[in-house]
Write a structure and sequence with these properties.
The protein is of the alpha/beta class and 511 residues long. Helices cover 22% and strands 18% of the residues. It has 13 helices and 23 strands. The longest helix has 19 residues. It comes from Lophium mytilinum.
């Protein structure tokens, strides 16, 4: 039987120190000690495989550098207890990866309890909570707590395989976890406060959970291995525009702008001659430079300024914004998405779909909300992640395939945005089959057909606090009327039921 060394707690010195993240394999159990302090049983990680893992109890403050492991443990415990209750309200939200804590809590272990634990459990929960056990000597080193295994023959023993004991699990069920939950929430609030742009709030009236601490808020997507943006030298800007000329909107002469070569042609403004020219270009290919282009945003409509114009709102045409090489200056009205979010948002807990997103203010039709950001990964890496994450992973992967057909890019050449662990508040936007927002392709470099922004805009006026949703199946116009086909496809075992509640709900997020 592997030994468990019991050493006295050195509370005064330990309390001010922090357990470092790399020291911890997982959090196993929780309790409240006789000083009414929450404590969490931590299993230490070991560089080499060992049959003598180190365990020790710590307050949330000592675990401040590994709060995400405490959160994993609390979530697994919550999932486990709600499954046990068979509550009709059980959140079907996320198919979370089973953490070690989950496995331990789920295993029925009425197995042999050691003499140490037996004596404490027979005396009741309060006394059990007083056990100050470690199976290693904890040392202070460079401001951190480190553990050193010892095996002394005269020290009481407990089987490592029995941890957590049944008694520990029972104690954990009725012990408060408020301190840790508050610390996790405060950490998330601090991260939200650090976000650039308008404020992002957090609201949860259902339980005490917070969004995952494993999620890193980022201001720009992160290019991962094997992903490259087009050479910045290929980013061509308009040269004839000036910040203050003509209509005072920056990029005024869209028909002369090199940056807008691929932008949608404004057919209503074509002369007969240009109509002919444009027809030939469409049939045989060629450049549309010189033809007037559709400006994407209302430039001077008092109540709609900055909003996407109906032409783009109702189509799937990519939006080309001016870029850093353009001469139109920083205030150009054709620089909107790249300036970032100005809408105040709230991440809130829904009843059945995990976290959701809503705006704290009324949104106008065509108003930009934020971009879907994350790690940009290769198609190969996305497949690997999808295979290890199952169907639920699909909801975080967004293929950058807008130009695949026009540029003849194969599936393998495409990049994918993974927003699960890094991104912005849009990560929390749920799917609806009748959404109030829509995703659009926004490019700043006409020569880069593999890396661009996915921007979310309100597709109708949305009152403050209404949940913001988009359709995860980013359908092109011709597919828009194909809902019946989606509805009739057969769900597989891994299909995620859609809980959007819309009249025209297709029933499944994916089949
Ligand atoms: C991009 S995330 C959205 C945020 C998510 N609710 C969360 O808590 O992190 C996508 C996941 O949310 C859930 N979800 C989103 N829309 C849903 C819907 N209409 N019905 C059921 N689950 C939904 C699914 O679990 C899906 O895998």
């Amino acid at each position: 039987m592997p030994p468990m060394v019991v050493i006295p707690i050195r509370s005064e010195t330990l309390r001010i120190l922090k357990v470092q993240h790399h020291n911890v394999a997982s959090v196993i159990c929780n309790r409240v000690n006789n000083q009414k302090e929450e404590q969490y049983l931590v299993k230490w990680s070991s560089k080499k495989p060992t049959s003598y893992p180190v365990f020790s109890w710590h307050t949330p403050l000592e675990l401040v550098n590994c709060l995400e492991l405490v959160q994993d443990y609390l979530e697994a415990k919550q999932t486990h207890s709600s499954r046990k209750r068979k509550s009709p309200d059980t959140d079907t939200e996320i198919d979370r990866r089973a953490s070690p804590a989950n496995r331990l809590l789920s295993s029925s272990r009425a197995s042999s309890t050691s003499s140490t634990e037996r004596s404490s459990s027979s005396s009741g929960r309060t006394i059990n909570a007083e056990i100050k056990t470690y199976n290693g000597v904890l040392e202070e080193s460079k401001g951190a707590i480190t553990a050193k295994s010892v095996t002394q023959p005269d020290i009481p023993r407990i089987s490592v395989a029995d941890i957590p004991t049944l008694d520990m699990v029972q104690t954990a069920r009725s012990s408060s976890t408020y301190t840790a939950e508050n610390m996790i929430r405060n950490e998330i609030l601090q991260r939200l406060r650090a976000l650039p742009g308008a404020k992002v709030h957090l609201s949860n009236v259902h339980d005490r959970s917070a969004p995952s601490l494993r999620f890193k808020f980022i201001a720009e997507s992160v290019l991962q291995e094997g992903v490259f943006k087009a050479d910045p030298a290929t980013q061509i800007g308009c040269q004839q525009c000036r910040p203050h000329m003509g209509r005072n909107i920056g990029c005024e002469y869209t028909k002369k702008c090199d940056c807008l070569e691929y932008a949608s042609v404004d057919e209503a403004r074509l002369s007969d001659e240009q109509k002919k020219e444009y027809r030939t270009i469409r049939e045989e290919g060629g450049s549309t430079i010189g033809l007037p282009k559709k400006f994407p945003y209302y430039a001077d409509a008092s109540d709609r300024t900055g909003c996407l114009v109906p032409f783009y709102l109702r189509s799937r045409n990519p939006i080309y914004e001016c870029n850093d090489s353009c001469a139109c200056g920083p205030f150009c009205r054709n620089k909107n998405v790249q300036r970032g979010r100005h809408v105040e948002l709230e991440i809130f807990k829904t009843k059945k779909r995990g976290w959701g997103l809503r705006a704290k203010q009324d949104l106008r039709e065509g108003e930009f909300i934020d971009t879907y950001r994350g790690e940009i990964i290769t198609d190969e890496e996305a497949t690997r992640r999808e295979e290890s994450g199952g169907k639920a992973k699909a909801s975080y992967l967004y293929s950058l395939d807008k130009f695949a057909e026009s540029e003849g890019l194969s599936q393998e050449e495409l990049y994918v945005v993974d927003g699960e662990y890094m991104g912005g508040p849009i990560k929390f936007m749920n799917h609806s089959c009748e959404p109030n927002c829509r995703q659009y392709t926004v490019s700043y470099n006409k020569h880069d057909c593999k890396v661009y922004d996915i921007a979310l805009f309100a597709c109708r006026n949305i009152p403050a606090m209404e949940e913001l949703t988009f359709d995860y199946l980013d359908k092109d116009e011709e597919e828009d009327d194909d809902d019946e086909a989606v509805e009739s496809s057969q769900p597989s075992q891994e299909s995620v039921p859609c809980l959007c509640g819309a009249k025209k709900c297709r029933k499944w997020l994916w089949t």
